[in-house]
Design a protein that fits this description.
mainly alpha, 197 residues
């Protein structure tokens, strides 16, 4: 049905006016559905980022423990080698090779650009996931408030249809607009309001 046909169909007296209010309520319901999806996605994104950050930090801790163990082993071999200056050259060479192997492993555990699994890379990854989580958590309250205002706007417009109080419709329009603005801010986080969240 074209817009002209809708306008022609709805043109008329009180019945047409009520139909336009019904269309307005339908638009509010669509906005409420979109807001619901945005809020659910923000919650899901926050949860996924939090799990990812937790996993990255756990992996970071395990790698750090392993790096510390490897460093301690290398230090212990160096002390043993220094304590025995008369050690045969072949044994000394094997000690030095093992120390070098441990030091190389320590460096690989610290930074591993190839696999992106060194401590430096894991730290950066975990911090990035924490930022993503915090952004998603900051978005969620805007969707919550938007849903509340849109639901109240729908109720007020519906009550207006029953009792015909124009002030209810105006209040519904104000709350619907506020809900729309909060929903848009939930998607963009253009403004952070201190009293929300």
């Amino acid at each position: 049905m074209a817009l002209d046909e809708v306008t022609e169909h709805l043109s008329g007296s009180k019945d047409a006016y009520n139909k336009w209010v019904g269309v307005y309520i339908g638009v509010l319901a669509v906005l409420l559905a979109i807001c619901n999806v945005g809020g659910a996605n923000a919650t899901k994104d926050a949860l996924q980022s939090n799990i990812g950050a937790s996993d990255a930090w756990a992996f970071f801790q395990a790698k750090n423990i392993r790096r510390n163990s490897t460093t301690l082993a290398a230090n212990e071999l160096e002390l043993m080698l220094a304590a025995q200056p008369t050690i045969p050259e072949e044994v000394k060479r094997r000690f030095e090779e093992k120390i070098k192997e441990y030091r190389t492993e320590t460096q690989r555990l610290t930074t591993d650009p190839a696999k992106k699994e060194g401590l430096d890379e894991l730290f950066t990854k975990a911090k990035g996931l924490e930022v993503d989580r915090d952004v998603a958590l900051a978005k969620d309250p805007y969707f919550d408030w938007s849903q509340a205002f849109l639901q109240i706007a729908i109720v007020l417009a519906s009550v207006h249809l029953i009792i015909g109080n124009v002030w209810l419709l105006l209040l519904s329009g104000g709350l619907g607009t506020l809900g729309l603005v909060l929903m848009a801010n939930g998607f963009t986080l253009a403004v952070r309001l201190p009293f929300i969240g």
